[in-house]
Design goal:
Order of helices and strands: EHEHHEHHE
Number of strands: 4
Strand order of the largest sheet: 1-2-3-4
Number of helices: 5
């Protein structure tokens, strides 16, 4: 059901999983000082959430979502498909990015998958479904971030 925003979202990408948890509390204080009210999370976390083909681990993301929810932030939750995990490229090298000249790129960097790959689409859909099931009913998840930086 459509729920209009009660405020203009002011924030940006937040990647607390890239530093120790001791820093997170200070981050919340900095956010308050800056009057930030939203955070985009999980853009490049696919490898952490799905460390292998059959395994999902949401423990850290659960903590981040809980922390931001407790502080009443609007959460812009990304599908984490901005960078595929290494296990996927090793097992299915055809998911690798191909540029406009037809050159296949090696694994690495962000946006490293070919969006036309049926294998990539299968796993991207699966992780997005897992995220939607887990966090879709959280009232603080107000937007879904599905991609950026096209081209």
């Amino acid at each position: 059901m459509y729920k209009p925003f009660g405020r203009i979202l002011y924030g940006g990408d937040y990647n607390p999983n890239q530093w120790p948890k001791e820093v997170w509390e200070q981050d919340m204080a900095y956010f308050k000082d800056a009057r930030i009210n939203s955070a985009t999370i999980n853009v490049f976390s696919w490898a952490k959430i799905q460390p292998s083909e059959e395994e999902y681990n949401f423990n850290e993301l659960d903590e981040i979502v809980e922390m931001l929810s407790k502080e009443n932030y609007d959460i812009v939750l990304a599908t984490s498909t901005g960078a595929m995990p290494a296990w996927m490229y090793r097992k299915y090298p055809e998911v690798g990015r191909v540029d406009y000249q037809g050159r296949r790129h090696k694994f690495g960097q962000r946006h490293n998958a070919c969006p036309n790959s049926p294998v990539f689409q299968k796993y991207a859909r699966a992780i997005a479904e897992q995220l939607a099931k887990r966090y879709g009913s959280n009232p603080h998840v107000t937007c879904w971030h599905i991609s950026n930086e096209y081209g």
